[in-house]
Design a protein that fits this description.
The chain is an alpha+beta fold. It is built from 5 helices and 5 strands. The strands form 2 sheets. Strands 1-3-2 form a 3-stranded mixed sheet, with helices on both faces. Strands 4-5 form a two-stranded antiparallel sheet. α3 packs across α4. The longest helix is centred in the middle third of the chain and has 21 residues. It binds zinc ion (ZN) (2 copies). One zinc ion (ZN) binds next to α2.
């Protein structure tokens, strides 16, 4: 876990670089940390740290994501990236479609663990991500 301000962008950039060969469109995708709606959503539901579908091609995240462990940060950002790609390819906003993108195209598995059932990134892509982080 790291609380450095650039940390989430590093995780995001590494995930995007992994997706780039199969999905060149990811170079247009942006991460916005601090979208006010992300804060509102989190207050209403403590499970919600990020969303898509608020700004075009953008994953919005709450800065609170910085305080979660790396597998969860990576899981949430990978899942949200999965949403953007599942929508881009199939016009599909379902949760399964987002996790399916992560599994099929990134080689990572999304797991949901209690108590909050937040996304955790597992599998080869998580190990590669850890190694690739600055
Ligand atoms: Zn937003
Ligand atoms: Zn989702």
């Amino acid at each position: 876990m790291s609380a450095k301000p650039n940390h989430l962008w590093n995780v995001w950039d590494v995930l995007r670089s992994f997706a780039l060969p199969v999905a060149p469109v990811v170079k247009n995708y942006k991460l916005w940390v601090g979208c006010p709606f992300a804060e509102d959503d989190h207050k209403k539901d403590p499970r919600v740290f990020a969303h898509t579908n608020c700004q075009k091609n953008t994953v919005c995240a709450s800065p609170r994501l910085l305080h979660l462990p790396l597998p969860v940060q990576a899981g949430i950002l990978a899942h949200e990236l999965g949403h953007l790609l599942a929508y881009h390819w199939w016009k599909d906003w379902r949760e399964e479609a987002a996790d399916g993108v992560v599994f099929t195209y990134l080689g990572g598995q999304i797991e949901y663990k209690p108590p909050l059932y937040l996304q955790e990134l597992k599998g080869p892509v998580f190990r590669r991500l850890k190694d690739a982080l600055p």
